[in-house]
Specification:
The protein is mainly β. The chain contains two helices and 24 strands.
Length: 323
Amino acid sequence: MKAFRRAVLVALGASAALNSCGGETNSFSYAPALLPGKGLAQHDFICFGEAKDERLYIVRGGRIVWSYLHPGRGEISDALLEPNGHILFAHQFGITEITLDKKVVWHYDAPTNTEIHTAQPYGANSVFFIQNGVPAKFIVLNKISGVIEHQFTLPAKGNSSVHRQFRRARLTLVGTLLIAHLDLGKAVEYDWNGNVLWSQNISNCWSAEQLPNGNILVATSGAQVVREINREGQTVWEWTPAEAPEYKLSNTQTAIRLPNGNTIINNWFEQLPDNLDSSNAPVQAIEVTPDHKIVWALRAWTPPTDLGQSTTIQILDNSPWKK
């Protein structure tokens, strides 16, 4: 873990921070001291991040109004506040569904030597997910009966680790499957028999989802590129860290498009250095306009509003749930 943190910091140009004396404040700046937007009050949202502790937060009116610590091992890579008020989340070694009263209403354990990093509700009583493994599988499971209703095998690298195979699967507007192949570096649309309908090479493709206009919004891990591409594979919109050098981004795992055309990009950061000044800490998310202006940057690392690592934000501005 320490080696990974050193690599991240060096990549961000923060090698000086690694050589600071114990107890001395790290003066390296990961973002401007004064950030655009309204901080936690910009949007109502649910958020989570891949971290040692499996935590979920709901923010409303500029404050944390709900939080949950899942007593398990692994990391949360995907979560959704459902229309019924339940929260479904994939946490590496299983899938869990809870109520806002923190009651577990359903759980599934990943089989030995497999991992699950993405899960979504399907129909009234089912869930679909990808089970990283040898072989990797797309599965639809009935939560009530426990019966596998549908499955097919997915291509993946045949190495000893299944961890990097997949992170996201989403339905398209017509009900086909859009899957981000993290290890193979591509976004692929499949029919329900596992046949490839569309494919685009995207290095370190962490997430991919279809936009209302039919284009695909992808976010990459490592390259820190967020890109909107059309069905011909042409880039119609792109954001890279070079456009905002004052922000040092570590890992842009996910991106979502808002109804107003802005794009929220999450910035996952493995772990803050112990001696980092919180006012210089990395931002957990930014909101970018179509013309690439940053209008909101989220930085919340200090109790009582410490949101921790950030993988995904689900906007709840129009949600009826007022927990």
